[in-house]
Design goal:
By secondary structure, the chain is α+β, with helices and mostly antiparallel strands. It is built from 4 helices and 8 strands. Helices cover 30% and strands 21% of the residues. 21% of the residues are buried.
């Protein structure tokens, strides 16, 4: 299923996205207990707790809180940088992948580094995510594909 909803920073947009997520979840006949949460891949810098867009110039959404989505959906929600989300997908799809550089070329540049099978988050936030976290992230993102 593909849903096209043009981004806008408004309550009606956030509700529409969540309604489509729930519609997709229901079409799969997925039980609530099978859903760990929902991850929203965004073009912007995400706070370490994944609850706020720290800097979102591309979408003009700096300061956006995950609560704008979680108010409309009964699962834990978090933001993830779009390039990190793509790197998580690569790790999930290619279990033998150890080192890679993900580069997204388009109207805007995005990148992620995979080193020793983990996603590197940079010097200011030296957090690594192992494959167990990647598997959980894949489950978070599953509903948004």
């Amino acid at each position: 299923m593909t849903y096209k909803i043009a981004f806008e920073c408004s309550g009606s947009y956030f509700k529409a996205v969540c309604d489509k997520i729930l519609e997709f979840k229901n079409s799969l006949k997925t039980e609530d207990g099978q859903i760990l949460g929902i991850g929203f891949a965004m073009q912007g810098l995400v706070t370490p707790d994944k609850q706020t867009i720290l800097y979102g110039k591309i979408l003009s959404c700096t300061g956006l809180s995950i609560k704008e989505f979680s108010n409309h959906i009964p699962y834990p929600c978090s933001f993830i940088h779009d390039a990190e989300s793509a790197a998580n997908s690569e790790l999930w799809a290619s279990p033998g992948l150890t080192d890679a550089f993900y580069l997204s070329l388009g109207r805007h540049l995005g990148a992620a580094i995979i080193s020793k099978g983990t996603i590197f988050r940079g010097k200011t936030r030296p957090q690594f995510y192992n494959r167990a976290h990647t598997d959980a992230a894949r489950r978070f993102q599953m509903l948004l594909r």
